[in-house]
Amino acid sequence: MKPYIAVVTDAFREALASRVLWIVSLGVFVFLAVLAPLGLRDEVTTQFKRFDVTSSQRLKSLLENSARSTRDTAASQVVNALDPDLQTRLRDAGKPNVKRLRTHEVLDGLNNLLDEQDWYDAELWKSTTRLSELRELDQADAENLNEVQQRRRNRLRLEAALPGAFHPRSGDSVRLRYAMFDFPDAFVLTRTQFVEILNKIALPLIVNLLLGVLGVFIAILVTGSIIPEMFQSGSLQLLLSKPIGRSLLFLSKFIGGCSFVFVNITLMIVGLWLIVGFRLQIWNHNLLLCIPLFVFLFIVYYSVSAVAGLIWRNAIVSIAVTVIFWMACFLVEVTHEIFDQFVAQPATIRQIAQTDGDLFATTQKGEVIRYGQSDSHWQTVLEAEFGSGTRAMGPLVIPQAQQVLVAQIRGGRFNPFSGSNDTLQLLTEQENWKPIDGISLPPGTREMFAGADGSLIVYGTRGISRAGNTLESESTEAPATGMLSGLLSMLKSETAGFTVISPTDLSLDTPMSVAGVPTSQAFVVYTRGRLIRLVAGDDQKLTIDREINLSGSANQRAAIAATAQQLVIAREDSGVEIYDLQSLEKLHDVPLDTVGKPTQLNTPADGGDRVAIRFADKTVQLFDTSTGKPLSVSVPKQGSITSLDWIDSQQLLIAYDLDRALTLDVSTGEVIQQWQPGRDVWRIVQDWIVRPLHAVFPKPGELGETVEGIVIGEREIEAGPPSEVDLAYDRRILKIWQPLLNCGVFTLLMLGCGCYYVSRQDF
Q1: In whole angstroms, what is the distance from residue 462 CA to residue 163 CA?
Q2: At how many degrees (to 10) do helices 737-760 and 703-712 cross?
Q3: Of 132, 401, 502, 678, which has the maximum CB count within 10 A?
Q4: What is the pLDDT of residues 380-403, one digit of tens each?
């Protein structure tokens, strides 16, 4: 072993003698020295910031309605304490010549109340939903609270008075500081927010850019000459004169270059880990696992450089070939991403439904499509502009009226609630499935579903509403337009065609989810940690029949569904639970065996004791809600399922592989029917060229996802702006092991080729 160790040491010394190395090492020390003074200062969360607002429209609407109301409420008490000019503008909002209120003006007015105490009325705040922190502060002796604690208490009181207008923030905030200088207020975050931003964004970005891109490129420059110089006159003969095998000689030189890179990467990662730990008090030990990962990333590129050095015996050619390989990997990855973003994702089915043999779906692009049996292609019923962020709501089948209801929410993928001019679209067979303009949705609508009697039910920030008998638009009045149209619509007590049926004392605060109970006029509601059962009276108005507070954080997003006897709730951090529908007593914790978190719950409309749960990794599991145990049926197309819907308690409609569908008999596991639409030219190119090429080509660029997963400590991340409403938002399962396996096989292949080549050459 001594001769091989000597070769490794010699290769290390060659790299150590490079001036580039010393420049890089100096740069690492300078970077760490510049980063070292960064620190944190603990603060208490008091002031409202712009990013605390869930919906500026909702905040203004709550204040404006309270300014006009004659009732004494907590919100009206807040309005009465505001600046008189602000009160006047709130009362007169929407009138001609009244200056439009800006969100920052409202926040400034609320922040001014943090230092005052005379606006609080304990009796009025008893009817509000108060967090446990506020209840503790209210019970504490006011004389024992310091100024900061009083400001914190006032903020929580304002949040309780304006439900759903603000994101709940924990009291422990941190302010970034550099040496002795504090950053501006914009850099004040809760500690949870800061830890999340640091671990999920900052650290992966820093290590990927500095080590994954710049570091690896410089390392290739420094080590590119090690293998070619081995073939210089006299060097190779001297080495081969010793009892050393040619293949092991090549591998020893290769390991020597890698050991040099290992030292420098260790210096960078350990220095960053110590600074983050000592200065920011965040000890993310997973960061140290990036050391072998980035060494492995270098090995992938260096294997190409080493083989090129063997063949051409020139350092410049070796580096050039490695750069070409880098660019080829980059182009293949970019091409795959472009096709995925512009071809595959827009066509992905998000919701699907069937009526009398006709198949309808909405896509991620926001379009409404119908399957044409004659040509076996999806036909566009409602188009959507690419990149507009349109969210399609539905399709919702109303069998009693033989209608399919859909709606397009403009900007709905970025704003989870509907706006002022979003209308229903009615599809009927009599009109050859052409869209008919329906009534306008109540502003703030999140989702719609069919009641047990076939009526249309919608819910959102304005509560739960029921549509009348006529869904077609009968109004000839032109809709309000302009900047004030949304505000004017929010001020209306009700939207024409809809009647609010939820209790007046029920506030649907985000996160929220509502579902109807099959075969009854009851509803189940989840809102900010509360589970509520509503029942309808003779006038169809709902009243609270029973409610409980769930354990765990009240800020967890959730999806809820009901059978005739049970209700099922999936929360992002608490898993899936089954409760008795009448008593709201917990019956079962559903055993899950999946990587992703639940994103969709579906129960049969006929009340059958079954639930289908779809997860972020595009898998589906079926459970018996009466026992909490999984059904024995094997669901096909796991890993590619994008949507599902029960036809009845025996048949499940599944959308998979972007735009295909099938009907599954859950009793026998038999596929009853399949829809396999034809594909256009771009889909053919993607399926037969882009995807196969991407599958077989090495993917060192995807090791960034491995780094991200290691630093975060999770395999699932949000792929876009998270919804504050429910679980139905984009998530992404990080590819941690696939890039390692793919690149590992490629590296072994390259090193094997190098060993074979050097053993067969006559030097």
Answers
A1: 12
A2: 130
A3: 502
A4: 999 988 777 788 888 999 887 788
